[in-house]
Amino acid sequence: MQSLTVSLNTTVRHCALRRSASAGPSAVLLIVLVALICGCGPGRPEMVTVHGKVTFDGQPPPGPGVVFFAQVSRPEGRPQRPGLAQFDESGEYQVGSFDRGDGLVPGSYRVTVECWKDVPTMGAAGTSYVGSGFEPPTIEVPEDASQIEVPIDVPLAN
Questions:
Q1: Which 3 state secondary structure label does DSSP give 151?
Q2: For the whole model, what pTM was predicted?
Q3: How far apart are CA 29 and CA 44, in angstroms?
Q4: 83-116: b or e for each residue (b if 16 or more CB lie within 10 Å)?
Q5: In the predicted model, is pLDDT for residue 15 greater than 50?
Q6: What phi and psi, each to the nearest 5 degrees, are found at residue 125?
Q7: For the segment 70-109, what is each residue's pLDDT rounded down to a tens digit?
Q8: Where does residue 153 rank: exposed (0-12), middle (13-18), buried (19+ CB within 10 A)?
Q9: CB–CB of 150/92 below 8 Å?
Q10: What's the pLDDT score for residue 25?
């Protein structure tokens, strides 16, 4: 029984050594593939600072919320990247795409505003402050701008 244990342990150790030796080229290949997929380029594209103020029927928002910017078109050669901004009771926001407040890539964006009285859950639909039928604007972020201001007035739900 003892020689079987030694033999089994030796076989297990031999397989483990073979597996770790062959993992070297696989690990290098994996690192190269990740670098190619993620890119090693010069960095992020040029961004345009986008900021503004959300109001509800011309008044400050009834609570905090989020503004989503979904890119619907872009100049040729530019990446497609959405944006996001949070606002508080003041309504002020600054959009971020890669980092908070870094702006948007030039292009056209469909805007969506979320501001909840009762946040939706798995069992309940939630109650939004945004009036039904609100058609948010589509905005243009020009390539030649360094910053733009986008005020958004939302109808308050009844």
A1: coil
A2: 0.70
A3: 25
A4: bebebeeebebbbbbeeeebbbbbbebebebebb
A5: no
A6: -75, -30
A7: 999 888 888 889 999 999 999 999 999 999 999 999 999 9
A8: middle
A9: no
A10: 52
How much is the CA Rg of the chain, to the nearest whole Å? 26
Tokens representing 75 are 């100049």
Nearest to 74 by CA among 129, 139, 156, 127: 139
CA 129/CA 40 separation, integer angstroms = 44
Q: The tokens of 69 are what? A: 């910017």
Whether the Cβ atoms of residue 148 and residue 111 lie closer than 8 Å to each other? no
| Measured distance CA(99)–CA(60) in Å, rounded | 26
Name the CA dihedral angle for 124, 130, 100, 97, rounded to a multiple of 10 degrees: 90
